[in-house]
Sequence to fold (201 residues):
Amino acid sequence: MSKHATSEAVMVWAGPRMHLVQYPVRRGELYNQVAVFESDSYTPHSDDWGTEAELEERFAGTCQAVRDALPLVSRDRRWPLYDRAPVDQWVFGRIALLGDAAHPMLQYLAQGACQALEDAVALGHALEQSSSLERALATYASLRSPRASRIQTNARRFGEICHLEGMGATLRNMLLASRSPENFDDISWVWTPATAAAPAL
Ligand SMILES: Cc1cc2nc3c(=O)[nH]c(=O)nc-3n(C[C@H](O)[C@H](O)[C@H](O)COP(=O)(O)OP(=O)(O)OC[C@H]3O[C@@H](n4cnc5c(N)ncnc54)[C@H](O)[C@@H]3O)c2cc1C
Fold:
């Protein structure tokens, strides 16, 4: 992270199997930058991939604005990315899954913690309003699973679109160029408050 935020917008610089995202945090006190790329060196049995050298190599051919920003990207931490396809079962007897345990998702919609919070609110309401623990957990899972699964699936798709190459990237760019930057119609449902309250049982 570097100081001196310049814009309130989230900037995404998309490239083939890579992107750089930039956005201000803490009311503009800090500017967060995250460089993401699909590593060619990945093997499940080694940690020698997604290295700083590979980062430099992969971003060497990017545009000037991205190359200017790259030296300011912190190198002290890196995160391998994992997700999972939605699962049908969230409740096992008296145990219910919540948050990443229920719906681990990729970061492209920045929704992992948001969905965990929505789970917590829905579970709280269900426990408050249900006549038994079993009914509360079943209500919680049936209320939350469709929305969380949809976001989980779409987060992966959003990353795939962001990292398109060749003709796919050209089509993506044409589509985005034809839209107003203020048009969020296709994605606004993610940030539309869900019905958190469980119906009275
Ligand atoms: C770099 C990064 C950026 C992110 N940015 C965003 C963002 O902008 N917006 C967003 O919504 N989400 C974001 N996320 C995702 C978000 O952090 C997670 O989705 C969220 O933390 C999930 O919450 P959780 O409570 O389910 O799991 P966790 O936060 O992982 O909490 C699980 C806890 O359980 C503990 N634990 C594990 N095993 C045991 C055990 N056996 N016994 C006891 N305790 C145990 C762990 O130590 C941990 O404290 C980001 C994640 C990362 C890594």
